[in-house]
Amino acid sequence: MNTSPIESWDAAGAIFSFAGGGGATLFCVLTVVFCIVPLFFTLKTENHHENMTK
Amino acid sequence: MTPAELEAALIWANKINLEVYYYWCTAIMVLIHAGFMMYEMGASRVKHTLAAGTKNVLAFAYMIPTFWLFGWWIYLAMTNGFVPDFEAGASALPWSDSMGPNLEDNATGVFWGAFTLFACTTASIMSGAVIERIRMTAFIILAVVLGSVVWILAASWGWHYAGWMVTEWGYHDFGASGVVHIISGFFALGVLIHLGPRIGKFNADGTANVIRGHSLPMTMVGLMLIVTGFFGFLGGCLFYGGGGPAGIGQWTNIYGMPTTLSAICFNTLMGIAGGMIGAYTKTRDPFWMMSGALCGVISVAAGMDLYYPGLAFILAFAGGVIGPVAAGFVEKMGIDDAVGAVAVHGVCGILGLLFAGLFLGGYPTFSEDIPAVTFFGQFKGMIVMVLLGFIPGYVLAFAFKKIGILRAGDNVQEVGMDVEIAALAYPEEIISDAAK
Q: Choosing a second label site near B15 at 20 to 30 A (CA), which of A13, B158, B274, B319?
């Protein structure tokens, strides 16, 4: 997959993968998702132990 | 080399120096989190040890992506109050060219990193207060709101050269007594009111019992690591470049007023020492002696770029005495703050702002349009910080309490919060004796 935003290092600015393209937005959204989903697993674990120790 | 080439080389060297400086400030600040983790694990009983440590690790981990997603944007966009300046914040949007590797921008990444570590510190301040009974999900969300929203909103208002508290009141908070410590301490207070005390902390008649952590030596070493990390924290409060000859190389504080690293060195060390001796004089307690170092440095942080070192020592001594007294008062109010975070950070943060108001009169600011430091300006700033910290913590904790996700059940607390962690802190034979 070609993710490079540049074709030459001369006068290059943003050099991160997908710079200036839709890929960057996609990975922003995925970052949000991957922050939120583990919270549900944490909540599930907490509830499990709340019930188990009763 | 022509004069023009020489000037270009100096500017380039200045840029790289700035990058190197903040990179290593950020690395040193990580020690604050190593310290808080040791501090809080040591202050926990054996059966809660790993839960306390895990909480610290997750606060650190969650702060980084959330501060990248929206924390840095809040700092740049919210200087006017609650109405965002979208133009000012545009470069901080997570998909902007500045928010990733960029050969034309050596500054954003290291500044973002340093501010992220400040955000992590705010979450760590809150996390110690709530050990042994808060649920992890609620804690993570509270930590994110505190670190990636509330503190950085406070910083945008009072720790940014264009922040409205600076431009209208001459608010001066060099080392973040208000924007980090008051915010975190009073956010923690808001949470503690709804969270309630640890089981067994208070008797039926309202008197308090001492709940000893399982390792005071671990707590003391942790506090010393926090003190070490403060050198990165306070070093990161300086701005490098722009104020010296040819616009290159002089340190300024975050408000653009010239200062030096030496100034910070004098008063960080004098603040630490004054706080330690003050707390030792008041309590003879090794826990408070080390917490006194924090009390001291926080009490002088707002004005440490300008204090005479002897003055800093005396103010820090006062902070070291007042911190434990304030912690006793909080306990008498029926609030179980396991590590004294409200007193150490909240109350000593108040002292820091008011001391600056009392002792920094007359200094010119970086622009004729900016008012000078006054006690009244600092006092108003303190009120804003207290409310800005307390209200979100109180409201959010209230909401979590209502939906039943704030506090672990008594059964889980009795067994130990580590029941939710897939590991043991110590061998079984130690647990069986110590956990009783």
A: B158
Domain boundaries defined on chain B: 10-430
Of A14, A24, A46, the CB nearest to B102: A14
CB contact under 8 A, B97 and A12: no
CATH number belonging to the domain at B10-430, selected among 1.10.760.10, 2.60.40.1180, 1.10.3430.10, 3.40.50.670: 1.10.3430.10
Chain B contact for A47 (CB, 8 A cutoff): no
- Residue B44's alpha-carbon distances to A34, B130, B166, B239, B428, in angstroms, are 30, 11, 40, 38, 17
Condensed to tens digits (0 to 9), the pLDDT of residues B288-325 reads 999 999 999 999 999 999 999 999 999 999 999 999 99
Q: Can you give the C-alpha Rg of chain A in angstroms?
A: 20
For an interface test with A, the pick among B103, B140, B400 (most A C-beta atoms closer than 10 Å) comes out as: B103
Contact B68/A at CB under 8 A = yes
Report the SS3 class of residue B112. helix
Count CA atoms within 13 Å of residue B169 on its CB side: 22
Contact B377, B357 (CB under 8 A): yes
What's the ipTM? Answer: 0.94
Predicted TM-score of the model (pTM):
0.94
- Find the CB nearest A54 among B62, B97, B411: B411
